[in-house]
Specification:
This protein has 735 residues and is α+β, with helices and mostly antiparallel strands. It has 20 helices and 29 strands. The longest helix is centred in the C-terminal third of the chain and has 24 residues. The relative contact order is 0.15.
Length: 735
């Protein structure tokens, strides 16, 4: 197929997250015309320059409504939809009358939002109302703005001012978007770590092929966004109470003595026993020398806790096996499958042994600025078209199935649906109904997606059923330098499963007095359904899910102090004053019940987890039967023109991550290339199981022979794992 022919085969991608952007990157590099449609793209907001791409990985922003952050009292900064409320409505353009019910509802919503923020006592300054329109003459927008001002003044907001902005926007020429903007300072507020371990081969490959077209001052010498990754130094273990906190370097040990000292510290500080470490080492050796067949047919169907035989460890080890993975990936040891946990543990260990001492990375700025904005610039320069719109369903014309975007039919050649599982699941039945009406088969992946999603209604509970769990975060701002460690920290004894990183220490642009803060501690809450008993007298025990915003900030901060205080005083002296945050911002996707003073009611960005025996039920196919070669283009082309992509699909990466999203996009693109019978190279795809300890390959081959004969792993045959079960200290039983 020549270039002219390729241009006649456009691809529309629904979803501007990592999967959608990755698919666009691979397609446009092969000469195809590509458009990305996303409901969040370029939503009007003069508050930030965020283009709304990147999905869960995109930056979040917060605003200090009184135009300052510093102060004696820890104040709440507003994020997400709470801050950037917007209402679409029809204004009077030409002879088209105003839709009065819609207009009045919009005014009421804006007014109520303003009243809520004013009631919290956090507004200092004038609220500015902005009307975004497309009419070049400006009269309709101006008339609309003046009516809004009159209605707001009548509702008790005499200080409200209005402004009109006229710029091209996607959609009807009669469509106007109205936002309000409290005066205040905009700051970075993204939760999560944007963790980049060295085994992210797919993502790093894409980042190396993403040039920095318009560099910031700190990026003048950097050619690609990959160079915006900064290595971290280690993984910190912060302990509660009087326990000692310490950091494990994330680099190759320099000697056997260094390994010995590290093991001694783990034994001394974490409370593990020698049998604990011996048993875990043997189990990990067993996993790393197990064949792919055994991993697929046995380990996918048992939990990580069962594989490790967690009940045979000491109490502290059992606790960490169960809740440790949930801190960073919402994976509970008793529920997540052993193959996913085993693969990730193996890859993290392989990163630890890298000779270049670069195991983990963070970005040198907030995600959108250091990565996504540059990615957008590159894709835009290659001809990718970005549009704002929401996929709302599907329709049939009797012979074909077409997507419906914002209520209107959208035609095209081929479509990649790269939406999150919560966004995809409600659309599945519409797709199945449309294919039935058109008499088209081949919808297995969509059927599997619906079944895999399970009960989405349970997401309004603290511990959802199905594959989606809660993992969200909070940022603490300081008006002094706070670093703790140059790396990630796990609060092993915290009831809420906290992890954190002090992000600005990795950023290329230093803080200045104009920022109003010097440091941010970004904290993830991994366990929303476990009670924490505050040390402050009179405060009741609570799960994170049942807390108000202020309670989350106070309860989480108390757990952080309990884990860091001793280490801080050990480093700086017994009289050193532990830093106190001056502000906090919660993940903008968390929704609270009532007037923002109630408990959590919803989580707009749940985290997909790998549960036992669930992987094979996912849509897509990358696993193969015995004797088959690896699959590089096995996602189903449905209704002759659709293919799915996203972290809910089968991938070799398996773990929900930016890496699995990127890999899934490559499988989707390869499937389209195969469907079109297009020559040339396919997208590169790497299986982590092909990148393990080379010296163990002969033992993996041996295990495959044993498995084919119905025999257990050779460590079980030799009895290597038959260590005595954990016993308590018998001296406590003596008189």
């Amino acid at each position: 197929m020549n270039r002219a022919e390729r241009l006649l085969r456009p691809v529309t991608i629904f979803g501007g997250g990592i999967a959608g952007l990755s698919a666009a990157h691979e397609l446009v590099m092969r000469g195809f015309t590509v458009e990305i449609i996303d409901a969040e793209y370029n939503k009007p907001s003069a508050s930030t320059l965020d283009r709304g791409i990147g999905g869960m990985a995109r930056s979040q922003w917060a605003i200090a409504l009184n135009d300052t952050i510093s102060g004696d009292v820890m104040k709440r900064l507003w994020t997400g939809a709470e801050l950037l409320r917007e209402v679409s409505l029809l204004c009077d353009a030409g002879n088209v009358p105003i839709d009065l019910p819609t207009w009045n509802a919009a005014i009421a919503k804006l007014g109520n939002t303003i009243l809520e923020i004013e009631a919290a006592g956090e507004v200092a300054g004038v609220l500015r109302i902005v009307v975004h329109g497309v009419n070049a003459a400006g009269l309709p927008g101006h008339a609309g703005a003046q009516k809004i001002r009159a209605d707001l003044v009548a509702a008790g907001h005499p200080g409200a001012t209005v402004d009109s902005m006229f710029e091209p926007r996607v959609g009807s020429p009669l469509s106007h978007v109205i936002t309000f903007e409290p005066s205040g300072k905009i700051v970075a507020a993204e939760h999560g770590f944007r963790f980049f371990p060295s085994f992210y081969r797919h993502l790093f490959d894409t980042m190396r092929r993403t040039p920095i077209t318009y560099p910031q001052d700190s990026e003048r010498t950097r050619a690609t966004v990959f160079e915006n990754l900064v290595p971290s130094e280690g993984l910190g273990f912060a302990r509660g109470g009087d326990a000692v906190s310490f950091m494990i370097p994330r680099r190759q040990p320099s000697s056997l003595e260094a390994v010995r000292k590290l093991l001694d510290r783990v034994l001394d500080e974490l409370g593990y026993t020698i049998p604990d470490l011996t048993r875990f080492s043997l189990k990990l050796f067993k996993y790393m020398t197990s064949s792919t067949k055994r991993r697929r047919e046995q380990y996918e169907n048992m939990s990580w806790g069962d594989f490790l035989e967690a009940w045979r460890y000491s109490p502290v080890s059992r606790e960490h096996i169960e809740y440790g993975p949930q801190m960073s990936a919402a994976l509970r040891g008793s529920e997540s499958d052993a193959r996913t946990q085993g693969n990730i543990t193996t890859q993290l260990l392989m990163d630890q042994l890298k000779e270049d001492a670069l195991a983990d990375y963070a970005l040198c700025a907030p995600t959108s600025g250091a990565w996504l904005d540059h990615w957008y610039d590159f894709l835009d320069s290659q001809g990718v078209k970005f549009k704002r719109g929401k996929l709302t369903g599907f329709m049939s014309d009797g012979a074909n199935v077409w997507p419906v975007v914002d209520g209107e039919q959208h035609t095209g050649k081929f479509f990649i649906i790269a939406l999150s599982l919560p966004a995809l699941a409600p659309l599945v039945q519409s797709f199945l109904d449309a294919t039935l009406a058109a008499g088209i088969g081949g919808t297995d992946d969509m059927v599997r997606a619906k079944a895999f999603a399970g009960d989405l209604a349970s997401l309004t509970t603290p511990s959802p059923t199905g594959p989606l769990q809660h993992l969200s975060g909070i940022q603490y701002y300081f008006d002094e330098e706070v670093r703790f460690w140059r790396g990630h920290t796990q609060y092993l004894d915290s009831a809420w499963g906290l992890t954190s990183i002090a992000q600005p220490q990795f950023w290329a642009r230093p803080r200045t007095p104009d920022d109003d803060y010097w440091s941010i501690l970004s904290v993830d809450i991994g366990i929303f359904d476990r009670l924490y008993q505050p040390k402050t007298p009179g405060l009741p025990p609570k799960m994170a899910w049942n807390c108000t915003a202020q309670e989350i900030a106070e309860y989480a901060w108390e757990q952080i102090i309990d884990h860091h205080d001793n280490a801080f005083k050990e480093k700086y002296g017994p009289d050193a004053e532990f830093p106190t945050p001056c502000a906090y911002a919660l993940d903008g996707t968390l929704g609270f019940i009532g007037n923002r003073n109630g408990p959590i009611g919803s989580n707009g960005s749940p985290f997909l987890v790998n549960k036992t025996s669930a992987y094979e039920t996912r849509p897509g196919k990358v696993t193969t039967a015995p004797g088959e070669s690896k699959c590089i283009s096995c996602y189903q082309i449905m209704a002759a023109r659709y293919v799915l992509a996203g972290t809910h699909m089968q991938t070799y990466t398996r773990l929900t991550s930016m890496e699995s999203a990127n890999e899934s996009a490559r499988h989707a693109v390869n499937s389209l290339l195969q469907h079109w019978r297009i020559g040339g190279d396919r997208c590169d795809i790497w299986d982590p199981e092909d990148h393990e300890v080379e010296d163990f390959q002969s033992m993996r081959d041996l295990d495959e022979e044993l498995y084919d004969r119905g025999l257990p792993h050779f460590t079980d045959i030799l009895g290597w794992s038959e260590l005595p079960d954990y016993l308590p200290d018998l001296s406590t039983l003596l008189p």
